[in-house]
Amino acid sequence: MEYISSTRMKVIDSNCEYLGLTSLQLMENAGASVAREIKSLFTGGKVTFIAGKGNNGGDAFVAARHLAYYDSFDVHVLLIGKKHSIKTDEAIKNFELLKYCNIKVSEIFDSSSVEFRESIKDTDIIVDGILGTGFQGDIKQPESSLIDTINSSGKFIISIDSPSGLNVDETNVKKAINANKTFTFHKLKKSYKDPSVKKFTGDIKVINLGICTDAEKYVGKGNFKSLSLPRKDNHKGDAGKILIVGGGDYFGAPSLAALGALRTGADIVTIALPKKIKNIVATYSPNFIIKDLRGDFL
């Protein structure tokens, strides 16, 4: 079973975009798949989608639109905040489509909202699209109190990709949605391998989004986006420390490897090699730290 980090998932998404599979298409695939899964679980009922302002909320907008096609489902979308605070173009486009689908859409700002509490009370199913797999840190308000209310509702809860509040790269969870079911995209997320996370995810099903295999197999644009750039307050060593061991009569290999390490951004490059060639290798760059070893060969 394969697990993936949030950073790696972002890399793959970006590589897909470069290859021609846009983030808007991926969002459509994600939301449509969630709607199909809900329909396979339930014959109908009242479904409340609670959407944040990022792409996780965008997935929820798409899922709501597809599910509303079926007369047996009564769909309501609750947006946390105002529509002009939606953060991504893809989510904005899918939010705007809701007005053409006979879907009730409400803006909510805290858990004490009468409309929020009545919606939670009257619904059969809650779909969590509040915070996505990029979430890190502490949950802010009003999301924190909304999550508390959702968890205490006693309703069937479905999370999109990841339960809101869960850092998918770590297992130390302070608070998160307690989902009955999680539909996660492409692959299981890193933290899901820990049994303690099960109480938040519930049953997990992996959904295929049609991601290009080359986007994952080869290095692409997304891989370079994920590389950290030097900061103005960096100290020597913050960008990486590399030790290269080699040498003997043939000292070209460790020299070239060390030069390559400098070119890729490492700022402390140490070469350990026989004493008799250390002065030759040192001439390649004043940035090398040379450690001589006993003997003429390794």
Automatic annotation (TrEMBL):
Keyword annotations of the record: ATP-binding, Isomerase, Lyase, NAD, NADP, Nucleotide-binding
InterPro entries on file: CARKD, Ribokinase-like, YjeF_N_dom, YjeF_N_dom_sf
EC code(s) of this entry: 4.2.1.136
Domain YjeF C-terminal: 219-298
Domain of life: Archaea
Broad EC category: lyase
GO biological process: metabolite repair
Cofactor: K(+)
GO molecular function, one term: ATP binding
Domain YjeF N-terminal: 9-217
Pfam family for this entry, one: YjeF_N
Catalytic activity: (6S)-NADPHX + ADP = AMP + phosphate + NADPH + H(+); (6S)-NADHX + ADP = AMP + phosphate + NADH + H(+)
Main function: Bifunctional enzyme that catalyzes the epimerization of the S- and R-forms of NAD(P)HX and the dehydration of the S-form of NAD(P)HX at the expense of ADP, which is converted to AMP. This allows the repair of both epimers of NAD(P)HX, a damaged form of NAD(P)H that is a result of enzymatic or heat-dependent hydration.
Family: In the C-terminal section; belongs to the NnrD/CARKD family.
Protein name stated in the entry: ADP-dependent NAD(P)H-hydrate dehydratase
Protein species of origin: Methanosalsum natronophilum
